[in-house]
Amino acid sequence: MSSSDKRSRSGLNGVLVAALAAVVLSACSEGAGFRPLYATAPGGIGVNEKLNQIDIPTIPSRVGQRVRNELIFENNGGALPTGAVYRLEVVIREALASTLVRSDGESAAQIYSLDAQFKLIRIADKKVVLNGVSYGRAGFERFNQIYSNVRAREDAENRAARTVAMDLRARLAAFLATATN
Q1: In what order do the strands lie in the sheet with 54-55?
Q2: How far is 132 from 121, CA to CA, in rounded Å?
Q3: Using an 8 Å Cβ cutoff, are 150 and 157 in contact?
Q4: Residues 21-45 pLDDT 10s
């Protein structure tokens, strides 16, 4: 292949790449494509304000309360929702799995699992507009001292609760960014 053939071929590839980029970018600029998640829509309210409109009822258990507190703090700085439009119902399921089992049958480590099944309900018509499950996992070592085991498990529970809350918040924000209320 001669050098002029190589130049014309690379020029053709450049034109194809430029044409493809133009098509992709034009789709984004027409409003159907990319928009920052936390941007305020023209003539509308931003995602942070919509997150502030979610009522989160009490979730049973210590870990459920941790998930609820994390969500309330992340959504609106710990304040109660202003003019609740949605209600988030969360049901959690906890499990503990032993790993690294020694020959005497004792576990050297465990994994705490937290599954949170959620429903986002529009209060006006009681319609479920979003549902799903968020998962959190956290491992911890087991020790000979009882207090150390209790603290290690509580720390794992707190980490899993924070993971679930952050996942829930991200999923809610993604939904609310496109929701029209």
Answers
A1: 54-55, 86-101, 107-122, 127-141
A2: 12
A3: no
A4: 655 555 554 455 555 555 555 556 7
β pairing state of 127-141 and 54-55: unpaired
Q: Which amino acid is it at 78?
A: G
Distance CA 172, CA 42 (A): 20
For 21-36, letters b (16+ CB in 10 Å) and e give eeeeeeeeeeeeeeee
Are 68 and 84 in contact by the 8 Å Cβ rule? The answer is no
Can you tell me the distance from the alpha carbon of 108 to that of 98, in angstroms, rounded to the nearest whole number?
8
CB atoms closer than 10 angstroms to residue 137: 16
The whole-angstrom separation of Cα 134 and Cα 113 is 11
